[in-house]
Design a protein that fits this description.
This protein is α/β, with parallel strands linked by helices. The protein has helices at 15-26, 56-62, 66-72, 99-102, 109-118, 191-194, 196-202, 238-241, 249-259, 265-272, 303-306, 315-332, 336-365, 370-378, and strands at residues 8-11, 32-34, 48-50, 80-83, 89-93, 106-108, 125-126, 131-136, 142-146, 151-154, 156-159, 177-188, 206-211, 214-220, 226-233, 279-285, 298-300. The chain is built from 14 helices and 17 strands.
């Protein structure tokens, strides 16, 4: 930037917010990241991500972290397997021979977050800073009020605070809506030793079995863990309607087995042979398209801007591309307003297109004929 250095505050220490902060710091621009978690280890970071060349890996290149990412990544994680409800393997798509260059190497979310956090100057992230509200001061600046009673002021407020973003309320009245699909998450530990048949069925990447508004998805993580998602097109309150306590593993297991009656015994091992409890995760998405008027001193990135179903495969990749593009705009333009205007001119149409694809993807994956749709898609017959 050619004018005096602005005060930049990023709310949310997810991949998008962290990559933005990293690139800004590489170019000598100060930034503070506020996160509600008490520390970087306060909670698990979720499953595995595939980094696309034109988005996630491009952002890592801009951040000067591509080599470190490649050293941690799992190119073999691009293995995709489609299985029928009886356990028959229908599609077995191996990653390309040069999976690093041509494919989308996988990395655990926690590993990616640690890579980004370790790249920042000490003290960049203010842990335990849950944003309560942001007060516009009338000149494009904002006063941030945190639940611990502290405040700070900023010239640019970047909402990277996820699905239930507080910052989003400054620019948009939109709220995430239930997609009609719920995932119940569980997992297998030390899978190759403790669950060799399920590990072999999963393969080295992701295994999906989709049929009649239901799905079983198993996904390799590092350290021998397989994360399992049991998917249902159902009422958001399905467990209450069924009289099931989500904290009672036996009751959840019985309810899920009833939903998947008639599926192959080996596949159902993903439900019954778990080493962890069950976590209910209804899937939400923002309206498509989600847009907002240019609002001085504030912008959004990642899920705060374009929360969508995971059936785009683009959520984290887009968040990181958003963060990189915003940082680059702030570096290249003379004022905050010019930078954010240029950024949003790219962000809004791009995210609308991706979100529309994600909505189509989840509707196809959880439909009466989802098995036929998935097979046609993966074999190029759609």
């Amino acid at each position: 930037m050619t004018t005096s250095t602005p005060r930049i505050a990023v709310v949310g220490a997810g991949p998008g917010g962290l990559i933005c902060a990293r690139i800004l710091q590489r170019h000598g621009i100060a930034v503070t990241v506020h996160d509600r978690d008490a520390s970087r280890t306060a909670r698990p970071q979720g499953g595995t991500l595939d980094m696309h060349a034109a988005s996630g890996r491009h952002a890592l290149h801009e951040a000067g972290l591509l080599d470190e990412f490649l050293a941690l990544s799992r190119p073999e994680g691009g293995h995709l397997r489609l299985v029928g409800r009886d356990g028959t393997v229908l599609v077995d798509a191996l990653p390309p021979a040069d999976a690093v260059a041509a494919g989308s190497p996988e990395i655990d979310r926690g590993q990616l977050r640690d890579l980004l956090l370790d790249s920042l100057a000490p003290g960049t992230v203010r842990w335990g800073h849950r944003l309560e509200r942001a007060e516009p001061l009338g000149d494009g600046t904002h006063r941030l009020h945190f639940t611990d009673g502290t405040t700070s002021e900023t010239d640019l407020l970047v909402g990277a605070d996820g699905a239930w973003s507080v910052v989003r309320g400054l620019v948009s009245d939109a709220r995430p809506a239930y997609t009609g699909v719920t995932f119940v998450e569980t997992g297998l530990d030390d899978a190759d030793t403790r669950h060799p048949r399920l590990a072999a069925l999963t393969g080295n990447g992701t295994m999906m079995a989709l049929d009649d508004n239901r799905g079983l998805i198993a996904q390799r993580n590092s350290g021998g863990h397989i994360r399992v998602y049991v998917g249902l097109r159902t009422d958001e309150a399905w467990h209450r309607l069924a009289g099931v306590d989500p904290a009672d593993p036996g009751a959840v297991r019985a309810a899920l087995l009833a939903e998947f009656a008639g599926w192959g015994d080996e596949l159902l091992g993903l439900v019954t042979d778990t080493d962890r409890g069950y976590v209910n995760r209804p899937l939400f998405a923002l309206p498509v398209p989600h847009t907002w008027p240019r609002t001085p001193g504030v912008t959004l990135l990642g899920d705060a801007a374009h929360l969508m179903s995971p059936f785009s495969g683009m959520g984290a990749n887009l968040a990181m591309l958003d963060g990189a593009d915003l940082a680059r705009a702030l570096i290249d333009h003379p004022t905050v307003e010019a930078a954010v205007t240029a950024y949003e001119d790219v962000l809004l149409p791009r995210s609308a297109e991706a979100a529309a694809g994600a909505a189509e993807g989840i509707d196809g994956a959880f439909a009466p004929d989802s098995a036929e749709q998935a097979l046609a898609h993966l074999t190029g017959r759609h």
